[in-house]
TrEMBL record:
It catalyses: Hydrolysis of (1->4)-beta-linkages between N-acetylmuramic acid and N-acetyl-D-glucosamine residues in a peptidoglycan and between N-acetyl-D-glucosamine residues in chitodextrins. The gene is Lyz1. This is Sperm acrosome membrane-associated protein 3. The lineage of its organism: Eukaryota, Metazoa, Chordata, Craniata, Vertebrata. GO terms for biological process: cell wall macromolecule catabolic process; defense response to bacterium; fusion of sperm to egg plasma membrane involved in single fertilization; killing of cells of another organism. GO terms for molecular function: lysozyme activity.
Length: 125
C-alpha cells in the first residue's frame, strides 16, 4: 500500500472518532433515546441546547474562565460530571471526558439525563 493510501486510512480513522451531526439526524437519535419530553423538556429544547453548546459537533471542547473544561455535543463539564487527567472531578456521570468527544453519544445522553434530573434541570447549561 502506498503512502497516499495510509494517509487516507489514517484520516478516515481520525474522523470516525468525532462527528458533526445534522439537525434532523440528531433529532431522530435524541428522540429514539427518549429525550423528547424527558423531564418536561421537548426535543426542540434538546436540539437548541446542543446547537448553542456545540453546533452539533461531538468534538467540541471548551475551556471556561474557572479553568474547567466542557466536552462533547452537550458541553458536559469536568468539574462535576466527567473525569479527565487535568482536574479533580466528582465524576457524577461515571464517564471519562474523552469518551464524550466521540461519534457515539450514548454516554453523553445518559449523562445529560442525569444532569437534568437535578433541581437545576436544563438551567445547568
Amino acid at each position: 500500500m502506498g503512502a497516499g493510501c495510509w494517509l487516507l486510512l489514517a484520516s478516515l480513522a481520525a474522523t470516525s472518532r468525532a462527528k458533526a451531526f445534522g439537525r434532523c439526524q440528531l433529532a431522530h437519535l435524541l428522540q429514539r433515546e427518549g429525550l423528547d419530553g424527558y423531564r418536561g423538556y421537548s426535543l426542540a429544547d434538546w436540539l437548541c441546547m446542543a446547537f448553542y453548546e456545540s453546533n452539533f459537533d461531538t468534538a467540541t471542547k471548551s475551556i471556561n474562565a474557572d479553568s474547567s473544561t466542557n466536552f462533547g455535543i452537550f458541553q458536559i463539564n469536568n468539574r462535576l460530571w466527567c473525569t479527565d487527567e487535568h482536574s479533580p472531578s466528582e465524576n457524577l456521570c461515571r464517564v471519562a471526558c474523552a469518551d464524550l468527544l466521540t461519534s457515539d453519544i450514548t454516554d453523553d445522553i445518559i449523562c445529560a439525563k442525569r444532569i437534568v434530573r437535578r433541581p437545576q434541570g436544563m438551567d445547568a447549561w
